[in-house]
Amino acid sequence: MRFVFVTFGSWGDVQPYVSIAKHLKAHGHAVALVTSKSFREPISAMGLEFAPMRPDVADLGRGAGLQRFIEVNQGSARVEEDFLRPALQDSKEDLARVCQNGDVVVAQFLALAAPLVADEMELPWVSTIIQPMTVAETRHSPYGSLALFSPTFVPREPSWPDDVKVTGFPVGDRLGTAPLSAELESFLGAGEAPLVFTLGTAVVGQAGDFFQLGVRAAQQLKKRAVFLVGRGARNTLLDLPEGMMQLEFALHSSLFRRALAVIHHGGIGTTANALLSGRPMLVVPFAFDQPDNASRAVHHGVARVLPRVEVNADRLGEELRALLDDRRYLERAAVLADKIREEDGVGNAARELVRVSLIHLASQTQAPNRLTF
Fold first, then answer.
1. Which residues, including other chains, have CB under 8 Å from residue 205's CB and lie 6 or more apart?
2. Statement to judge: residues 293 and 155 lie in one domain
3. pLDDT of residue 373 exceeding 60
4. 333 in Cβ contact with 289 (< 8 Å)
């Protein structure tokens, strides 16, 4: 079977499909990842087939700039209406070429071309949901929908369609055992667990003074810290104090479990890794689904929330002090992590996709017999 995964967004919107695709490939299936050309290098480096689909997510940061899309209430709608729909024909053309040899199309909710191309080519397609708050607005496939998040973190709601299957987070390294760089290992081994500050990939370009304020808050608390500042020089921190380190990137799954606490934006991929780490978190939502994810973490008693507009060094320090001084946050985070680690999100999703493909194959095999009567 050949599975064609179609997604749009930041690396956090791509990573779940990479994990599932790697699992399917390891079990003998063919896979293709169709997304923005910006991700060609990391996907190809993993030995997975890659195909570009217009528009490129990197173009969101050009012209009017990314800022107009970084908005809590209307951000996702603006991305769809102002960026994706005008390029829909281009998307369809790019995807159709890949689907010529496809058996099942796996579609993220912003991959607008996927259900159209699948229907035109008479291929089964499965709708997938990464962000819990988008279950209601997702176009659900008649072949089934997969909610790629934890049923422990987000219990099924009565309003959801019956055929939505909640798989668990599709994180390949649930136990955080993948190696970190020698430089980072050396830093981690040289002292107490650090605070870890990250904005993932979706909003790191709009960090503003977030990391600088984090430095000052960590100094107030006399804590070590690691800052994942993203690529390029825009967030580079100058003259970092002793006991602090900055990196462009590090594996969240491995780094977070070594943290004292995780300070992040609330993207669902980053939230998943923070939950799996068993460490308490301070969430600073910027836009999109981030406030919703943050409120769910607060509901489970593993996080505090500080709105982006209220962030300053003193408020960061106050919230972190409250998080660290109350051991119940750590205790609840550890218990929740144990439950979520037991969920095989990658395997559950892969098995469901194979089930859909076999049902479709059986129907196609029987079709000629029905036509003979």
1. 61, 66, 230, 234
2. no
3. no
4. no
Spatial distance between the Cα atoms of 242 and 219, rounded to a whole number of angstroms: 10
3-state secondary structure the chain: CEEEEECCCCHHHHHHHHHHHHHHHHCCCEEEEEECHHHHHHHHHCCCEEEECCCCHHHHHCCCCHHHHCCCCCHHHHHHHHHHHHHHHHHHHHHHHHHCCCCEEEEECCCCHHHHHHHHCCCCEEEEECCHHHCCCCCCCCCCEEECCCCCCCCCCCCCCCCEEECCCCCCCCCCCCCCCHHHHHHHCCCCCCEEEECCCCCHHHCCCHHHHHHHHHHHHCCCEEEECCCCCCCCCCCCCCCEEEECCCCHHHHHHHCCEEEECCCHHHHHHHHHHCCCEEECCCCCCHHHHHHHHHHCCCEEECCHHHCCHHHHHHHHHHHHHCHHHHHHHHHHHHHHHCCCHHHHHHHHHHHHHHHHHHHHHHHHHHHHC
In a domain, 23, yes or no: yes
**pLDDT tens digits along 147-167:** 999 999 999 999 999 999 999
Is residue 177, in this structure, part of any structural domain at all?
Answer: no
Residue 239 region, left (φ>0) first, then alpha (ψ -120 to 50), else beta?
left
CATH code for the domain of 320: 3.40.50.2000
How far apart are the C-alpha atoms of 72 and 289, rounded to whole Å?
7
Q: Identify the CA nearest to 284 among candidates 72, 7, 19, 58.
A: 72
Do residues 149 and 207 both lie within one domain? no
Q: What is the pLDDT of residues 204-231, one digit of tens each?
A: 988 999 999 999 999 999 999 999 999 8
CA 337 – CA 345 distance, rounded (Å): 14
314, 351: one domain: no
Range of the domain at 330: 182-341
| 176 within a domain of the structure (yes/no) | no
Answer for the pair 277, 214: CB distance below 8 angstroms, yes or no: no
Which tokens sit at 254?
Answer: 């491995």
Cα–Cα distance measured from residue 238 to residue 139, given in angstroms and rounded to the nearest whole number: 46
Q: How far is CA 200 from the centre of its chain?
A: 9
Residue with tokens 């000629």: 368
pLDDT at position 38 over 90: yes
**Are 164 and 200 found together in one domain?**
no
Q: Is residue 174 part of a domain?
A: no
Q: Quick one: tokens of 3?
A: 């599975």
